[in-house]
Amino acid sequence: MSTPIVNENVQQRTSITSESIRKRRVIKENLTGYAFISPFVIGFLAFTLIPIITSLYLSFTNYNLFSSPQWIGLQNYIKMFTQDPRYWKSLKVTLIYVFAGVPLRLAFALLVAMLLNTASKAVGLYRSLFYLPSLIGGSVAVSIMWRNIFGDQGIINILFHFLGIPVVRWFGNPTAALWMLIFLSVWQFGSSMLIFLAGLKGIPKSYYEAASMDGANRWRQFTKITLPMLSPVILFNTVMQTIGAFMTFVPAFIISKGTGGPMDGTLLYSLYLFTQGFSFFNMGYASAMAWIMLIIVGILTAIIFATSKFWVHYESEGGR
Amino acid sequence: MRMKSAKWWTYHILVGGFSVLMLYPVVCLLMSSFKESHTIFTTAKSLIPHPWIWTNFTDGWKGIGGNSFGLFIKNTAVLVILTMIGQIISCSLIAFGFARLEFKGKAIWFGIMMVTLMLPNEVVMVPQYIIFSKLGWLNSMKPLVVPAYFGHPFFIFLLVQFIRTIPRELDEAATIDGCNTFNIFYRIILPLIKPALATTAIFSFYWTWDNLLGPVLYLNSPAKYTVSMALNMFLSTETVSNWGAMFAMSIVTLIPVFVIFFIFQRYVVEGISTSGLKG
């Protein structure tokens, strides 16, 4: 749209000059464009692309930051999969964390978003209250708090005792400790809830009115209108939350005091990678772990997108 | 005035009760910070402290190893402000470029940006550490601050979406009036995207304030610690005796987050709803 409008009558006479003006204009446009996005281009090269390539190279080496990298071929990868039980443990723990935590969190988020999708004046207040855990969830303070309420004499065990459920020693049992982390992640459903709420507001009321006139009950309205209409948002949330969950670090680090214990029960992938890279200074090994993580996250995302054509419904005007 | 229906009451008791339940852990932390350390666990059953004491806050404020908690807050505040300025300047420039200018390779760069949005930080963590250590930047704020001046994909995406809603006629009118591209950005677009810039500033604050991994990697001397690291150190160095002080300082670190949320709620909620920013 920014190409110059040339008067038809004078076009022939000035075709040479207008051509060179046009060229100069295009060059200028390109330069201006790149000038504006140059911080991103430079930042991408310096802080993303070069590190990624370096990381791939390091993953084939033995490197401890102090002496120069030593090429060892696939040794790191072989060691990871055949000689490192802690690696398998951390992978298993992380997959449980992701596959239990993400669906629970999204289900919760959707349920609450539907409850809040009403005309009530108090919705604004409730929305904020439900969002707060998500807002502060990444902080060290919250992880400290979580340690406290799941402590042997914490409120959760008091509640269990009151309900007649046997008291759980959350820090004594690897499975229980992992669930403590999963509950913490589910508790932070707020940001997904806000995204769902925005999606729900976009569904025309008339759809539900028509459906209830046709005698569809609430459940049918949910499965036939809400879910299909919301499916693009669900897809987006699932992808982002899965990636986010894979990278969880702070709660595992704080709740286990950096050890990943008890018995590696909370040794999330990021925490183990951090331990290998920055406690043991096995930077080659840590890089290899990072690459496997990238591949796993890539595969998961690809699977989610590949299945999406069976369950994600886009409106016929084919927007996004 | 007509009586509220039973349905109304059920809804508000259910949803309101549930929201209170969700916030119970935070309230519990707050109340514990007013309890005497040795009674925190024995009195977990009762929420209200007895007696109410303030010494946890004064104890905690003394900090660790001769560095007061005030210093940690100051360090974090400096880090937050420098990061925020960097994100706002760089992301608004980049977003303007993507949203308004035409140039070769734009689609490719935009695609690259969207991919980096999903890239796990762990992949670049080790090499970045090596690069920053070779530059001699360890034990300084530089590795945490400098990258902020090169944009953040989430904020760029948010701002691009926002700029796209501004009618192009404004730019065209300004061009006719003889405005150059930078002036269109500076005088027309920038004032109009203030709400989105506010969202950027707020989330930039939250993420920097909460960040633990970055400071753990790059800051070694306690005098440079941020609040997250100070809390982490409380947890790892203190024995059971000083829980109260740790809870008190946890509350102190949450106060700015709450205050900013309640003042700028609209921007936070809109930011998440429109761009899917993770909170």
Structure description:
- The complex is a heterodimer of chains A (320) and B (279).
- Chain A is an all-alpha fold.
- Chain A has a two-stranded antiparallel sheet with strand order 1-2.
- Helix content of chain A is 72%, strand content 1%.
- Chain A is flat and about 70 Å long.
- Chain B has a single domain (71-275), classed as MetI-like (MetI-like fold, Orthogonal Bundle), CATH 1.10.3720.
- Chain B has helices at residues 6-32, 55-61, 69-100, 106-117, 122-134, 142-145, 153-164, 168-176, 181-192, 194-210, 213-218, 227-237, 243-275.
- The model of chain B has no long low-confidence stretch (mean pLDDT 85).
Task: Based on the model shown, name its key terms.
heterodimer; A: 320 residues; mainly alpha; MetI-like fold; flat; B: 279 residues; 70% helix; 0% strand
Give the helices and strands of chain B as they follow along the chain. Answer: HHHHHHHHHHHHH
Mean pLDDT of chain A: 85
CATH superfamily of the largest domain in chain A: MetI-like
Largest β-sheet summary of chain A: 2 strands, antiparallel
CATH classification class of the largest domain in chain A: Mainly Alpha
Strand segment tally of chain B = 0
Shape of chain B: globular
Roughly how many Å apart are the termini of chain A? Answer: 23 Å
- What is the radius of gyration of chain B computed over CA atoms, rounded to a whole number of angstroms? 23 Å
Alpha-beta content class of chain B: mainly alpha
Q: What number of structural domains do the residues of chain B give? A: 1
Share in helix of chain B: 55-70%
| CATH C-level of chain B | Mainly Alpha
